[in-house]
Known about the structure:
This protein is an alpha/beta fold. Helices cover 36% and strands 16% of the residues. Helix 2 runs parallel beside helix 5 and helix 3 runs parallel beside helix 4. Keywords: Amino-acid biosynthesis, Aromatic amino acid biosynthesis, Lyase.
Amino acid sequence: MNKPIYVLNGPNLNRLGLREPEIYGATTLAEVEAMCMEAAGEEGLVFRQTNSEEEMIAWIHEAIDASSALLINPAAFTFYSMAIMDALKMYPGPMIEFHISNVHKREPIYHNSLVSPVATAVMAGCGARGYPHAVRILREMVAETFPSDQ
């Protein structure tokens, strides 16, 4: 496929390593990016974080045209942004919704994702170390979808 995997991160994830380490761990977003870059291999990776819903939607639109797969940790946008859900509905490739914590073990407000119904798969509760696993899974999904491109 020769298009990069996009990894998009939502609000407050720029504070990883500092924000509620008992829930999110001590790994920083820069460390997560390095793990994902290594896992992406030669396909490459676009790694971004935003606290802005508008910017996230623009990046999803970009990913629709420019990526082979999408890993998205929408963070708080997961639970209220119909605009992000609608943008993700247009995404044509494999997509994993990712959460560092197990949102299903948390308060009820975290139980209803607007993203899950449009994602190919959901990963939650693996901590930051789950990110590179998700990238590798997406590489496999792309290879299965486009076997002649390998």
